[in-house]
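Duplicate of #3305? Posting structure anyway:
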């Protein structure tokens, strides 16, 4: 169930108070006059896409997160590579991003360009679509401030060290989040987005095949869960697209089951399971497993904070005509 309207009224001023000067130019009603049908258009497109392709919500949330963590929330991840530039989306850690998120943004942009050409930025589309999809699959509502511009830079070499990988030591993951001004608790709350979406078998295959001399799979896994993953991913080297739901219990519902799963040995990725046992993260995992309302509140607050991470406004960005290309080709 989405958070009540009163919580939105409480959350909005707290988010605005966190805004640095540039980001303070963002407002919730940025398009009210220039593109008044923006909310209705984006809602219709995401409804159609999510209903036809249920993996869209998880794909879009992950796309948004990966975009914001590199260069800020400026749609730099949407840029396609060309002869002169290898863009962010072709960095190794981004190659597994599902195409449904990219496709959704393209569909929304196309519809908006017909209604109000050259007005709505791709970064605002991605931020709004992410929030709307979270709500659509049962997660909390939260205000999205608008007025971002699309960035001028997208380079694959800028990605390394800015996005956590599931096999990284927890200390390194915490360091990445700390560099973006996120606390340990905020990191654990944001990780709750793993309640939807999926991960490819090659991201956890080392945990289920030939794990050690004494065990075929990581003993931290629930044994039946491990056997199920071994069966599912048996041919992953032949078919790299093979994947498993991040939340095996309620894969298409945004809830706190991700944290409950961690307590039961059902954490899919290394980093997930580490959160459940490390002394710095375990208290938050236990708290969110026991209290979905608290998780929703903290997740909404952290997502609001993420959504204006290093945003571009004014002359620092542009409104792209196409989300996958800069308006002017850069050699």
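Output from current build:
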């Amino acid at each position: 169930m989405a958070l009540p309207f009163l919580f939105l009224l409480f959350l909005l001023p707290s988010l605005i108070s966190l805004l640095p000067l540039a980001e303070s130019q963002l407002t919730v009603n940025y398009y009210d006059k220039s593109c008044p049908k923006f909310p209705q258009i984006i809602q219709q497109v995401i409804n159609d896409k999510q209903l036809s392709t249920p993996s869209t919500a998880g794909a879009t949330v992950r796309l948004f997160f990966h975009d914001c963590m590199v260069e800020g929330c400026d749609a730099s991840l949407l840029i396609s590579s060309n002869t002169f530039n290898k863009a962010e989306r072709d960095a190794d850690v981004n190659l597994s991003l599902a195409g449904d998120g990219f496709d959704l943004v393209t569909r929304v942009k196309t519809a908006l360009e017909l209604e109000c050409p050259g007005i709505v930025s791709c970064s605002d589309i991605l931020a709004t679509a992410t929030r709307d999809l979270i709500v659509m699959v049962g997660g909390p509502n939260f205000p999205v401030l608008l007025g971002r511009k699309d960035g001028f830079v997208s380079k694959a070499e800028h990605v390394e060290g800015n996005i956590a990988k599931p096999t990284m030591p927890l200390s390194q993951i915490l360091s990445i989040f700390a560099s973006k001004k996120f606390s340990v608790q905020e990191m654990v709350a944001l990780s709750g987005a793993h309640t939807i979406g999926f991960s490819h078998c090659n991201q956890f295959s080392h945990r289920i095949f030939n794990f050690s001399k004494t065990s075929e799979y990581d003993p931290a896994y629930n044994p039946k869960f491990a056997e199920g993953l071994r069966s599912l991913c048996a041919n992953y080297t032949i078919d790299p697209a093979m994947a498993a739901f991040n939340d095996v219990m309620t894969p298409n519902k945004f809830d706190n089951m991700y944290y409950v799963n961690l307590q039961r040995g059902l954490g899919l990725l290394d980093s997930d399971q580490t959160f459940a046992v490390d002394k710095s993260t375990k208290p938050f995992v236990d708290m969110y497993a026991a209290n979905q309302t608290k998780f929703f509140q903290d997740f909404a607050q952290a997502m609001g904070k993420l959504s204006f991470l290093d945003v571009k406004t004014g002359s620092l960005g542009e409104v792209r005509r196409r989300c996958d290309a800069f308006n002017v080709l850069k050699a």
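Confirmed duplicate; merging threads. Residues 178 and 184 are 8 Å apart (CA to CA). The radius of gyration is 20 Å.
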